[in-house]
Design a protein that fits this description.
Blueprint lengths: L3 H16 L4 H14 L6 E5 L5 H8 L3 E6 L2 H10 L7 E5 L13 E7 L8 H11 E10 L9 E4 L5 E4 L9
Parallel strand pairs: 1-2, 1-4, 2-3, 4-5
Antiparallel strand pairs: 6-7
Length: about 170
């Protein structure tokens, strides 16, 4: 699992990667995510693990009322900066997807968890919270990478586990 401190350090670089259109894998799977999301105008949408807010901006442009939540304060800062053109349609907050979400029951029509669940050690906790905040006939859309995309440079952590380093993850502590 990547910590919020990791994402705080990588936030600027990751945001540039996304905003400059360098996410080649995204171009492959994002049309399917859009199709699954369907018509979002007027819907209350939770962007769980919103990162720098790219999906939130797209959803708001399509008429959704979006709340983005992410564990990284730096990514939320960047998401808020990018939301200037969508005042009133987007709200962002720092929060832990493994804890109780700070929302009442049945308050979202749709939840998007794009490329985040694979980084969460207790998917059951996150999915339970998503189910709690969804209205009874709401929908949840998530995406995770296929293992074939985990190719590239590898790093071994302190516990001897291997992980791939994506371009924006090459941030090291000074």
């Amino acid at each position: 699992m990547m910590s919020s401190e990791h994402w705080d350090r990588a936030a600027e670089r990751y945001s540039a990667f996304v905003r400059e259109g360098r996410d080649e894998h995204g171009r492959i799977y994002e049309p399917a995510v859009r199709e699954l999301l369907g018509e979002v105008a007027g819907k209350r949408v939770l962007d769980a693990g919103c990162g720098e807010g790219r999906w939130a901006r797209e959803l708001a442009q399509s008429g959704a009322l979006v709340t983005g939540i992410d564990g990284s304060g730096e990514l939320i800062r960047l998401a808020r900066e990018g939301a200037a053109d969508h005042q009133g349609h987007m709200n962002f907050l720092v929060g832990d997807l493994l804890a109780s979400l700070p929302f009442p029951d049945d308050c979202f029509d749709l939840v998007l968890a794009n490329m985040v669940l694979m980084d969460i050690p207790r998917i059951d906790a996150a999915v339970s919270e998503v189910a709690r905040v969804l209205v009874p006939d709401g929908a949840s859309v998530f995406s995770i990478p296929h293992p074939c995309f985990f190719m590239g440079d590898w790093e071994t952590d302190s516990e001897g586990k291997h992980k791939v380093l994506r371009d924006w993850e090459r941030v090291r502590e000074e």
